[in-house]
Automatic annotation (TrEMBL):
InterPro entries: HAMP_dom, HATPase_C_sf, HATPase_dom, His_kinase_dom, HisK_dim/P_dom, HisK_dim/P_sf, TCS_sensor_his_kinase. It is found in: Membrane. The keyword Magnesium does not apply. It catalyses: ATP + protein L-histidine = ADP + protein N-phospho-L-histidine. Keywords: Kinase, Membrane, Phosphoprotein, Transferase, Transmembrane, Transmembrane helix, Two-component regulatory system. GO terms for cellular component: membrane. It comes from the Bacteria. The keyword Membrane applies. It comes from Arenimonas composti TR7-09 = DSM 18010. The chain crosses the membrane at residues 369-389. This is histidine kinase. GO terms for molecular function: phosphorelay sensor kinase activity. Residues 451-666 form the Histidine kinase domain.
Length: 666
């Protein structure tokens, strides 16, 4: 990974900021919800105390039968479909698995009962049969201002209902009804006379099967049929609830069976649909309100079956968050017990309200968090990117300076120094100090050849003089060959010293060269005659173009001497050497081509380095050793004249061509 990528990866750690902010939003949302819950519970408790001031309008503490109000009388056919929803809120009996359901309703001051019994083992009988016989039947107990009556209800076959008194005799009033059989059991629907006023009802169902098993369920107390008081919807409570309840809230009162006996108020419109964008609302509900379920019942329900209501009927306060059936609004509901003056629980009060404030406050906090996070990410990302770019640029400059600090000849160039106190500044200063030591050592090596040539001249002269003296002495014939070989060695060492001296002299001459304007074509023409004699018997061709150049003519002649000497070494006697001069842009091109062996491809870029030679053995006519300084001098002269030297094979493969591209000295 690059340094910039690593810093970018480090910058991603800034993402912990939105995560921490999101945790803060969640904590804030929880605190807001707790505050809203406490506020609505306090309102519900205050409202419950206001309602309980007049306990006579509350349901009985021991429980009773809720009498629903019907707009029209249902048909007595054993079907509950025309009970206008009252059949969905029955009183149930039978323990953990209720098998007796009783619903009561009033229409035109006439009391109706709908009784459903789950009984798959039919043992049917008639109402007027003696009570000690084993058959399925219902017992009803009615109480009113006119007296207390016990009724037996039983049918041997489906159809019109048979009702008898306690001793199987006739009743002082007529009860209409219908007995309907079905796969799950039977249903009894009956209606009491309009003139019969009833304020308490007791009911029990007896179920027997063929094996003699017996079960009984209903309003039984110590085996006796007990009465339950009747109560219904209290419309007179609605104005009081509207006066006591806070605006925009809905109040519902339920009895101990969770049946609604009073309600008031409506939920105010929720502005969050207009104030919040749909995607934000969906985000908040998906992440913050995952525990909020849709409300199970509609506002016009007869019974409220909710966990918070069950908690309130047990004597504790309950709170729940829900959505409305459409899922567009967030609802907060609190249920508290309704207690009379004696402390008995008469029912529960359910208070509901929309809670757009939580979503709106959450949205404001989220919007600010999002804005701050984006600004922080942009600033931190921009700063880190700027820092990474600046750091990368400094490293690139240091790399480029390190790559160009040494040229191919080992000369040390200027290395930038920085005063930065960081690690890169330290590294730059260390590089500079190292290159200073390398430059000092390189200067020593560059001057070594001149020093050696100067120091070796005297020992060589002494050896040469000693050999001359030995040569004039009378020596045995067998010693003469050794003397000749020693003289040859001294001569070769002398040539080496002269060559090193020549290179040093040329380098000094290049450093001290002064530019002048001269005719380069005339200079080459003057050299061509001498080159023709030197290259004989090889063919020598020239082709020049008149051109002026500003430079050092004596150095150019020395460079040409080196090229001609190189061509003379490799061109065969029957070969050809061609010298040409042409104009090239704002400079000139001098080319010397010769037939002979071609250049290895790997050596083309190294020929002009110092101490590089392709000769496996001395190839000069005088037998002198070749050190590889000639083409090195050619390159130095070309560079002095703002150009370069290059070598390439001829296109037809017949030889090589050395080219000098010169622009002139400044």
């Amino acid at each position: 990974m690059s340094l910039r990528a690593k810093l970018l990866l480090v910058a991603l750690s800034v993402l912990v900021l939105p995560w921490a902010g999101w945790q803060f939003v969640r904590q804030m949302e929880e605190l807001l919800r707790q505050g809203q819950e406490q506020a609505i519970v306090a309102s519900a408790e205050a409202l419950a105390r206001g309602v309980a001031v007049r306990p006579g309008r509350l349901p009985p503490a021991q429980g009773g039968f809720f009498v629903h109000r019907l707009q029209f009388a249902p048909r007595l056919d054993g079907e509950g479909g025309d009970w206008q929803g009252a059949q969905q809120a029955p009183a149930v009996f039978g323990g953990a698995n209720p098998w007796l359901r009783v619903a009561l309703a009033r229409s035109a001051e006439r009391l109706h009962l709908l009784v459903e019994v789950a009984d798959t083992s039919r043992q049917r009988g008639e109402a007027y049969w003696p009570g000690d016989l084993a058959f399925d039947r219902l017992r009803l107990r009615l109480r009113g201002p006119g007296g207390d009556w016990l009724l037996h209800v039983a049918n041997n076959t489906p159809g019109e209902l048979r009702v008898a008194g306690a001793d199987g005799g006739a009743l002082p009033f007529r009860v209409e009804g219908f007995w309907r059989e079905h796969d799950a059991g039977y249903t009894v629907e009956l209606a009491l006379p309009q003139a019969l006023q009833v304020d308490a009802v007791g009911i029990a169902a007896l179920d027997l099967d063929a094996g003699g098993d017996r079960r009984e369920a209903g309003t039984l107390a110590n085996g006796e049929l007990a009465l339950r008081a009747l109560h219904g919807y209290v419309g007179a409570l609605e104005p009081e609830l509207l006066a006591l309840a806070p605006p925009g809230m809905r109040v519902v009162l339920v009895d101990r069976d969770a049946t609604v006996f009073a309600r008031a108020g409506t939920l105010r419109a929720d502005a969050t649909d207009e104030d919040l964008l749909p995607w934000r609302r969906a985000l908040y509900r998906a992440l913050l309100f995952r525990d909020v379920d849709e409300i199970a019942t509609a506002p016009g329900e007869r019974r409220v079956e909710r966990p918070e209501v069950d908690v309130a009927l047990e004597g504790r306060s309950g709170v729940a968050w829900r959505r409305d059936p459409g899922g567009a609004r967030l609802l907060l509901a609190a249920a508290v017990p309704l207690r009379a003056g004696d402390g008995a629980i008469r029912g529960a009060l359910l208070l509901e309200r929309t809670n757009s404030e939580v979503l709106l406050l959450t949205d404001r906090a989220f919007s600010r968090l999002l804005a701050v996070t984006l600004v922080a990410l942009l600033l931190s990302g921009g700063v880190l990117l700027w820092y990474a770019s600046r750091l990368a640029a400094r490293i690139r400059r240091l790399r480029d300076a390190a790559e160009s600090a040494l040229d191919r000849e080992g000369r040390v160039g200027a290395f930038p120094r920085t005063r930065a106190r960081d690690e890169i500044g330290d590294l730059s200063r260390s590089f500079a100090a190292l290159l200073d030591r390398v430059a000092a050592y390189t200067d020593y090596l560059r001057s070594l050849s001149g020093k050696l040539s100067h120091e070796l001249n005297t020992p060589l002269a002494i050896v040469r003089t000693s050999l001359d003296n030995l040569d004039s002495a009378a020596l045995p014939a067998d010693v003469r060959p050794y003397l000749g070989r020693a003289r040859d060695g001294v001569e070769r060492m002398g040539n080496l010293v002269r060559t090193m001296s020549e290179v040093t002299r040329i380098e000094h001459a290049i450093e001290a060269a002064e530019a002048e304007d001269f005719d380069l074509a005339a200079l080459l023409a003057g050299c061509a005659d001498a080159y023709a004699d030197l290259l004989a018997p090889r063919t020598f061709e020239t082709g020049t173009y008149p051109v002026q150049l500003r430079g050092a003519p004596e150095l150019i002649v020395q460079a040409l001497d080196k090229l001609v000497d190189n061509a003379r070494s490799f061109c065969p006697p029957d070969g050809c050497v061609r010298l040409s001069l042409t104009k090239e842009g704002d400079g000139v091109r001098i080319a010397l081509a010769n037939t002979g062996p071609t250049l290895p491809e790997s050596m083309r870029t190294q020929l002009f380095d110092s101490l590089v030679s392709l000769r496996d053995k001395p190839q000069r006519t005088d037998g002198a050793a070749h050190l590889g300084f000639g083409l090195y001098v050619v390159r130095l002269v070309a560079e002095l004249h703002g150009g370069r030297a290059e070598a390439r094979n001829l296109a037809d493969g017949s030889g090589v061509e050395f080219v000098l591209h010169l622009r002139g000295m400044g």
